[in-house]
Write a structure and sequence with these properties.
single chain; mainly alpha; Arc Repressor Mutant, subunit A; 7% strand; globular
Length: 105
């Protein structure tokens, strides 16, 4: 199993303001809930090794389904894990080269 951990150096893209240090620490903690395991859904980013992918949660949120309805449908998820999915997606999008499509992890 490969678990994703992001250090604060990778989150420097969030900005250099003094108040951003707290935001970076929170984002690092949240992203730590995301796991990538080749044995679980082909290695797609999942929440805590569960068979709930980041993409599934993002898709539900993007269609306007409320957090409450998502959590009711997946009672084993915690509210912070929806935030983790968003933080992971934001981190991935900031670390992707738009011209070549390669990752800068």
């Amino acid at each position: 199993m490969r678990q994703v951990f992001v250090d604060t150096a990778a989150l420097v893209a969030l900005g250099n303001k003094r108040d951003d240090w707290h935001d970076r620490a929170v984002a690092t903690k949240k992203i730590g809930r995301i796991t990538l395991d080749p044995a679980i859904i082909g290695g797609k980013p999942c929440i805590r090794r569960l068979r709930v992918t980041v993409g599934t949660l993002l898709g539900l949120m993007a269609t306007g389904i409320s957090r409450e309805r998502i959590l009711a449908a997946y009672p084993y998820l915690e509210p912070d894990e929806l935030d983790a999915a968003l933080a992971y997606a934001a981190w991935r999008s900031k670390n992707r080269d738009q011209k070549t499509g390669t990752d800068h992890v």
